């Protein structure tokens, strides 16, 4: 990563940010052995041009991981490309298209990854809601709109192949309105894992599900078909700045892999005070420069030779 010619003010901010990152105690990944993945809602990323300092801070945060699912990327990719320019030539991005109506909010979902650690293996698609035939017209129509379709991409790290699915569940008119799309997503993943020609059963679901608590009907819906939080994230890892809401999640089905290590958490770049990073901004304006969400991260074991041999022996 190369920050280039920066002001003294940005350099001071990067030093402070480095202290906050160090407090998160994120272990380094090891080539062909482990990778660090994260999901991060970067507030309205691309809606309006961010300050130069914010671009450097966002790049510094992303550089702690090997693969990041980014939520709320907007139609204008200028700021994403500014970040990639700082991260350097080994970094790549895969992103979905945007929907122009108000429901789609002109949002994309994106994966940003370091190709030295993670290889994109070809699958990139948006999930389609299950369809049912309309008897009057003969057309197959979706049973429910996700408003913003989950985004799927396939990757390999070491000898671990996996499919990432990232979602941003619409806030809607309250908790009750989010139960059905969350249940549909759980059902969709469960049915997809039963398909004969599925690219890989190792599915990692990430994103902003707008679930305030794991003790809720919303969390019950998304975990109703076997998806689980990795053990390292079972404790309280709130991803809002107050760290008391579980909006963001990383989930998997332990039936298919035990790849998650004991390392995971939320990277608190805010640390209760934004002023050392942006002394002239209010807290609200700060959230539009960095974010109102913290990155949620996990370390994955990618040396899965024994797991693969077990699968072959038990076919």
Describe the structure.
- With 315 residues, the protein is an alpha+beta fold.
- The chain has one domain (8-313): Endonuclease/exonuclease/phosphatase (Deoxyribonuclease I, Chain A, 4-Layer Sandwich), CATH 3.60.10.10.
- The protein has 7 helices and 13 strands.
- The chain has helices at 8-23, 52-62, 78-87, 175-192, 217-222, 283-289, 305-313; strands spanning 34-45, 67-74, 91-95, 107-114, 119-126, 131-133, 140-142, 151-157, 160-168, 203-208, 248-252, 260-266, 296-301.
- Helix 2 crosses helix 3.
- The radius of gyration is 19 Å and the shape is globular.
> Would you count the extended β strands for me?
13
H-E string = HEHEHEEEEEEEHEHEEHEH
Please identify, by name, the CATH architecture. 4-Layer Sandwich
Largest sheet: 6 strands, mixed
By CATH, the superfamily comes out as Endonuclease/exonuclease/phosphatase
Residues in β-strands, percent: 25-35%
Give unreliable regions as ranges: none
Task: Give a brief description.
With 315 residues, the chain is an alpha+beta fold. 24% of the residues lie in helices and 28% in strands.
Which structural traits does this protein have?
315 residues; alpha+beta; Deoxyribonuclease I, Chain A; six-stranded mixed sheet; five-stranded mixed sheet; 7 helices; 24% helix
Q: Helix and strand layout, with pairings?
A:
Elements lengths: L7 H16 L10 E12 L6 H11 L4 E8 L3 H10 L3 E5 L11 E8 L4 E8 L4 E3 L6 E3 L8 E7 L2 E9 L6 H18 L10 E6 L8 H6 L25 E5 L7 E7 L16 H7 L6 E6 L3 H9 L2
Parallel strand pairs: 1-2, 9-10
Antiparallel strand pairs: 1-13, 2-4, 3-4, 5-8, 6-7, 8-9, 10-11, 12-13
Helix pairs in contact: 1-2, 2-3
């Amino acid at each position: 990563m190369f920050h280039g010619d920066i002001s003294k003010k940005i350099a001071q901010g990067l030093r402070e940010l480095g202290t906050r990152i160090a407090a998160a105690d994120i272990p380094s990944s090891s080539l062909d052995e482990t990778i660090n993945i994260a999901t991060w809602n970067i507030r309205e990323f691309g809606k309006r041009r961010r300050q130069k300092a914010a671009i450097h801070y966002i790049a510094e945060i992303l550089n702690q991981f090997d693969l990041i699912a980014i939520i709320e990327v907007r139609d204008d990719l200028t700021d994403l490309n500014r970040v990639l320019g700082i991260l350097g030539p080994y970094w790549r991005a895969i992103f979905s298209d945007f929907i122009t109506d108000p429901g789609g909010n002109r949002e994309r979902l994106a994966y940003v990854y370091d190709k030295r650690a993670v290889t994109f293996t070809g699958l990139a698609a948006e999930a389609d809601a299950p369809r049912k035939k309309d008897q009057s017209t003969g057309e197959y129509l979706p049973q429910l709109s996700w408003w913003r379709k989950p985004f799927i991409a396939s990757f390999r790290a070491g000898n671990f192949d996996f499919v990432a699915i990232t979602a941003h569940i619409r806030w809607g008119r309250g908790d009750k309105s989010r139960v059905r799309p969350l249940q549909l997503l759980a059902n969709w993943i469960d049915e997809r894992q039963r398909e004969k020609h599925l690219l890989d059963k190792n599915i990692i679901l990430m994103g902003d599900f707008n679930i305030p608590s794991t003790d809720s009907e919303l969390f019950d819906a998304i975990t109703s078909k076997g998806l689980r939080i990795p053990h390292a994230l079972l404790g309280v890892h709130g991803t809002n700045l107050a760290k008391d809401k579980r909006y963001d999640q990383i989930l998997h089905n332990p039936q298919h892999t035990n790849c998650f290590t004991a390392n995971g958490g939320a990277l608190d770049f805010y640390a209760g005070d934004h002023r050392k990073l942006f002394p002239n901004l209010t807290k609200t304006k700060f959230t539009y420069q960095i974010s109102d969400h913290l990155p949620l991260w996990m370390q994955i074991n990618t040396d899965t030779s024994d797991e693969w041999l077990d699968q072959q022996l038990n076919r």
